[in-house]
Structure formats: C-alpha cells, structure tokens
Amino acid sequence: MTLSALILPLLLALAAICGLGRRVDVYAALTRGAEEGLTVLLRIIPALVGLLTAVSMFRASGAMEWLAALCAPLLNRLGIPPETVPLMLVRPVSGSGALAVGSELMSTYGPDSYIGRVAAVMLGSTETTFYTVAVYFGAAGIHKSRHTIPAALTADLTGFIASALAVRLFFGT
C-alpha cells in the first residue's frame, strides 16, 4: 500500500485521537457538523436549481448561438477564436456545461489546435462565477451581491483574453 493511499485514513485517525486527547465528544462533533452541512445544503439548493434551469433554457432557446454570432467580430479583433464563444458564455454559469462545451471544441478541432488549447486554458483560468456566488452567498445568507458579480465577470473576461494571449505567446496560432 502506498503512502498516498494511507493519508486520508491517517488524517481521520489523527483528528479522532486529537479530539479524544482534548476530551471532545468526537461523534457528537461529527453529527453536529453533518447537521450544519445539511442545513447549508437546504439553503443553497433553490439557488442551484434556478441557476441550472436558467442555463438549460438559455441554451435551448437559441439565444446562445445568437449572442455568439453577435460577439464574433469583436473577439476576432481580440485574437479570441469565435468558436470559443459558447464556452465563454457557459463558463461563468455552469462548470459541467463548460466542460461539455470544451470537450466538444477539442473533439471537433483537436486538443492540440489553437482553438482546443485556448478552450483548455480558458477552462483552467476562469471560474463558474454565478454558481460560486450562489453557493457561497447562499450558504452565508447574503442576499445582495453588490459589486461581486460585475467584478467577477470582469475577472472572467480578463481570463478569457489572457488565455488566448498566452496560447498565442507559447504556441502560436
């Protein structure tokens, strides 16, 4: 058995031993933590269901393709392949949706193509903004995001532009 296979059991055993050494009821602490986790889950599920429903409706309506065609001229000027527009639209909303779009781009154009590399770097250098805000703000009970969404979307846009630039610098077009 390798050391990496033993790390998690050893950490759990160490936590239990430390708890017992400090005379903490480890089982009660575990169940209390599980109860708090379920409470948080109940608070964030409505936001997640709404978010995933909105993404599905956006894709099914054809609005994504329309928006992609609208953005293509500007993206060409920025050096971003227009084929990555669906990825840039889905990434801030859904990580699994973005992964599916990225996989589709890589299977269509190849993982070593300019488009495939840009898609891979975009996936690794941006965040699922709305999902993250829904989960963390929902868990914390925050209802007004104020400047969070615009700042996070600006960071995502910067990541998209920097992804195309980095791929051009390191690999060419």
Task: Tell me what you see in this structure.
The structure is a single chain. This protein is mainly α. It is 81% helix and 0% strand. It is built from 8 helices and no strands. The termini are far apart. The mean pLDDT is 87.
What's the helix and strand layout?
Blueprint (H helix, E strand, L loop, with lengths): L2 H19 L4 H36 L1 H16 L6 H6 L4 H15 L4 H12 L3 H12 L7 H24 L2
The secondary structure category is mainly alpha
What distance separates the N and C termini? 45 Å
Query: Stretches where pLDDT falls below 50 for ≥5 residues?
Result: none
- The quaternary state of the protein chains shown equals single chain
Task: Tally the beta strands.
Answer: 0
**What is the overall number of helices?**
8
Biggest pleated-sheet summary: none
Shape designation = extended
Strand content: under 5%
SSE string, helices as H and strands as E = HHHHHHHH
Q: Rg, please?
A: 21 Å
Q: What is the average per-residue confidence, as pLDDT, rounded to a whole number?
A: 87
- The residue fraction in helices comes out at over 70%
How would you briefly describe this protein structure?
The chain has eight helices and no strands.
Summary keywords:
extended, mainly alpha, single chain
